[in-house]
C-alpha cells in the first residue's frame, strides 16, 4: 500500500505571507526521503495554496509520482495535459469551502466528465475520481473510463473523532463498512481502490487494513505534525502505521 503525501498546506503557510518559503519542492523532497511513494497537490481554481509555478517545479524536480488534484474543468485538463502528472484526480470544488466537502457527482455530469477523462488518457495520464462511498457513483466512474477511485474517508474520520476515537462505536463501524463495500465494488469493476481525506495518525489504521486498498492520500495531518517533528519524520511515522496495519 502506497502513501501519497499531500503538501498543499506547505504552500498555505507560504501564502500566509505571500513569500517564497516554505518551498513545496523542499517539502516533496523531504516527504520522499521519509518514505512517500507519491506527492499529491490540489491546484485550486482560486490558487489559494498551490500555484501553477509549484506544479511546474514539482514536475521537474521531484522523483516520486505526482498526483494532481483538480476541478473537472477544461482549463484544468489543459494544465494537466501540459504538466503530465502520473495521475490526475477530478474533485468537486467550491470557492467558499475550507477543504473538499464531498465527492464528485459523476451522475450529474457524466458526458462532460467522460470527455475530460478521455483527454487525460490521450495525454497518458491516469484518471482518478474523488467519490463518496456510493455504488451508483462507482458504476458511473467505470462508465466514464476512470481507472482509479479515491473513496472519500471524511465521513468515517468525522464519525471516528465524534465517537471519541472509539473504533467499535456503531457509527464508526457503519462508515468503515461503507468504505470497505465501496472498495470491493471498485475492485470488482477493475479499478484501483484508493482512499483519502481527513486521515490522521489516530484513524488511519482501520482504513489501511481494508482489503485491496492501494494508496492513501494524506495531507493536513502530516503537515501539522511536521511543524513539530519535521516532515521526514512525520511521513516515516505515517508509513510505519500503514505498514503495521497491513501486517508488513
Ligand atoms: C480531495 C481531498 O480530499 C483533498 O485532497 C483536498 O481536496 C485537498 O485540498 P485542500 O488542501 O485545499 O483541502
Ligand atoms: N485526497 C486527499 C488528500 O490528498 C489529503 O487530504 P487531507 O489529509 O489533507 O484531508
From TrEMBL:
It comes from the Bacteria. The active site is at 42 (proton acceptor), 69 (proton acceptor), 197 (proton donor). Gene3D superfamilies: Aldolase class I. GO terms for molecular function: pyridoxine 5'-phosphate synthase activity. Keywords: Cytoplasm, Pyridoxine biosynthesis, Transferase. GO terms for biological process: pyridoxine biosynthetic process. It is found in: Cytoplasm. It is an enzyme of class 2 (transferase). Pathway: Cofactor biosynthesis; pyridoxine 5'-phosphate biosynthesis; pyridoxine 5'-phosphate from D-erythrose 4-phosphate: step 5/5. The record marks 150 as: Transition state stabilizer. SUPFAM superfamilies: Pyridoxine 5'-phosphate synthase. The keyword Oxidoreductase does not apply. 3-amino-2-oxopropyl phosphate binds at residues 6, 17, 198, 219-220. This is Pyridoxine 5'-phosphate synthase.
